[in-house]
Amino acid sequence: MWKRAFSVGGAAILRCSTAGRRLSSASPDPVLAPLLRSLEEYRLELSEISPPPKLKPPPPPFSVVEGAMERQGGPVLWTAYGEEEITVWVDRRAHILPGRGAASAAAGDVISELCLFVDVSKPGRERSLLFLCGLYPDGVGIHSICLKPSIYPTSTSMYQGRVFQELDWKMRDAFQRYIETRGVNKSLFPFLQDWLYVKVYQNLMSWFKNVGTFITGCEPN
Fold first, then answer.
1. At residue 84, what are phi and psi to the nearest 5 degrees?
2. I want to staple 104 with a disulfide (CB 3.0 to 4.6 A). Which of 100, 181, 205, 215 is the partner?
């Protein structure tokens, strides 16, 4: 399905680009043909990427935030724990295994670490508790903890408190149990890995289409 959609999209762009070249034949752009050729080569390389896996439901107790796949950023997962609301959003730190091709690297299909943000909020409270974590196939580790205004996203200028690893081990262990009790553990890794793969693949498809459309100056059929 993914390869078929990509092939159809690429062909439409190339048909459109031919019309664009005919319209601009009076003053040809010397870089247009090689650029379109490069886009076609890139499309062919992308078509060899393994199709993204079909997403399964996230591990309990989480559910997927509506519209998360369509947005460029923001929360991916949500759950409630008593009066608390826990939202999770994710970034990736991709490590491509040796011997993989450029297309595989572009897809980011080999991920060994995820950067995880965990926001814990309570109704009526002006601030929420934000955890910055590293998520791995075999566990989750807290990097930092801070209190932030509930209505604002995280900021790099926010005071992060003491370095987490400098806290007493009993306190570190208690915070670790705190987030794991709320479902933040290694069981999230397979789902979020697949989610990011699908997300990156969709972004690549959209990028190719939009760049080709801009260069040719017309919308593909």
1. -85, 150
2. 100
Q: Is the dihedral of CA 191, 192, 195, 196 positive or negative?
A: negative
Q: Which residue range forms the structural domain that includes residue 206?
A: 2-50+202-216
Q: Are residues 21 and 116 in the same domain?
A: no
Indicate the angle between helix axes 2-23 and 32-46, nearest 10 degrees.
170
Instruction: Examine the domain organization and report whether 67 and 174 are in the same domain.
Output: yes
* Series of mean pLDDT values for 10-residue runs along the chain (221 residues): 39 44 55 81 74 84 92 90 96 49 44 89 92 94 88 57 85 96 96 88 79 72 49
pTM given for the model? 0.71
CB 87 within 8 A of CB 78: yes
Are 174 and 69 contained in the same domain? yes
How many domains are contained in the chain?
Answer: 2
Q: Are residues 131 and 42 located together in one domain of the fold?
A: no
**Cα dihedral 15→45→205→154 (10° resolution):** -150
